[in-house]
Amino acid sequence: MGMLGMWARRAEVGGRESVVVARPEQPQGGMTHLCSERTTAHRESAGASLRTESRVRPRMDWEGGNMGRWDGSSSRPSRPRNRLGAYACLLIATFATGAGCLGQDGSNGVTGVSLGEAEQRILFVGNSLTYTNDLPGAVATVAAALGNDVAVASVAYPNYALQDHWYAGFEGLVTDLEPDLVVMQQGPSSLPENQLFLATWADTLSRAVRAAGGEPALLMVWPSLDREFAFDDVRDAYHDAAVGVGGTFLPAGEALRVLHTQQPDLSPFGPDGFHPSDHGTVLAAYVIAGTLFGDQVLGLDARLDPGPNGGRVIALDESAATALQTIADSVVAAWR
Fold it and tell me: Quick one: which of 150, 160, 202, 138 has its CA closest to 62?
């Protein structure tokens, strides 16, 4: 099946944020190692208790870049891949825990991340909005049901922004794994300061992705329900960041907004009003797969089992499946 990337327009999303009080210099070139620490406190979502993290990063008002198109092609020659990433602790797509661990250098990260051989190899980089309900696994399952040969891996930690992934060893990770596509997300990033922060670090990570032979994509997330008014700003933040890096814009947040407003009985949000319900995760997976592969998802079975490269079971009732698939196809078509 042909691979479709993205368009030139904007989608919405929002959530709990924290104001950027200082923007670090954008890293240039190789791996940057932290030589000092400071404690920062921030929220990942509305109602979340303060979490203290030891990491050099600006304090973000916690709500959380470039539109282009990915055709799935890769110009790099085939060669053996080192399956050990530069991150310090294992977290792959099937992990649904927020536990982190320390590497030998004392930094947070992931080691041992592997990305299987397939026609299209996708790495997801984000936080709990990605690992809740295993979004990467759901994308793998939907992609396989559409007839695509896709392998996925995921590196996601609570409260992580793109900057955190960079300092945890992102450059070494993508150099080792050589993914065809890297799907990136952080918090909603609806405030002006955070929109700039998202765009800056999306550019930094995208340069590393392309140096490794891949293409970037930005996954539009969403605001918490108590910040519903910020959907447009979230959309603009991710769309503009995608446009800025010439990457693919994935309008998952737009689809969650439509579901929330049109069919609240199938709420895309979990009990905390920010993290996705299973309906929200499956809807996001439909949008991602439909955008990347150019296929309509309407008509897929309500129950989908993992494909040959793994994934997660998707089990909906028929009416819910039809509703989610219809919304996904309409949002993808609107942003194509």
Answer: 160
